[in-house]
Amino acid sequence: MKGSVLGGLGFTGIISMLGTMVGVPWGALLAVVLAGMLLTTVVALAQLAMPQDSADKTQLWDTVLKYRARRQAPAVPATQPPLPTAADS
């Protein structure tokens, strides 16, 4: 069995062994495993950040939608005082 490129660390050694059994290059298998770990972490963090009570979720989405509506509304032009003319002097 061929050794791992990363020096046979425990995690990459297991990935290399599984890749050899399935016949997949270890780099592709490592990429899939890391993508899965990243996705799991993102979902867990999103669940931590999202409020758990229904009323809080409603308030959060209401605030987000109001903010987006405000950002997409056309800007009101600022009114400027009229420029002085020669007759004003």
Which residues form runs of ≥5 with pLDDT under 50? Answer: none
Cα Rg: 29 Å
Number of domains: 1
Number of strands: 0
Using the alpha-carbon principal axes, give the shape: elongated
Give the termini separation.
Answer: 95 Å
Largest sheet, in brief, is:
none
H/E series:
HHH
Structure annotation, total helices:
3
Which percent bin holds the helix content?
55-70%
Structural class: mainly alpha
Overall pLDDT metric: 76
Tell me what portion of residues adopts beta-strand conformation. under 5%
Name a few traits of the molecule.
mainly alpha, 89 residues, elongated
Please explain how this structure is put together:
The chain is elongated. The chain has one domain (1-70). Helix 1 (10-22) crosses helix 2. It is built from three helices and no strands. The chain has helices at residues 10-22, 26-49, 54-72. The mean pLDDT is 76. With 89 residues, the protein is mainly α. It starts with 9 loop residues before the first helix and ends in a 17-residue tail after the last helix.
Secondary structure blueprint with pairings:
Layout: H1 10-22, H2 26-49, H3 54-72
Helix pairs in contact: 1-2
Short summary of the structure?
The chain has helices at 10-22, 26-49, 54-72.
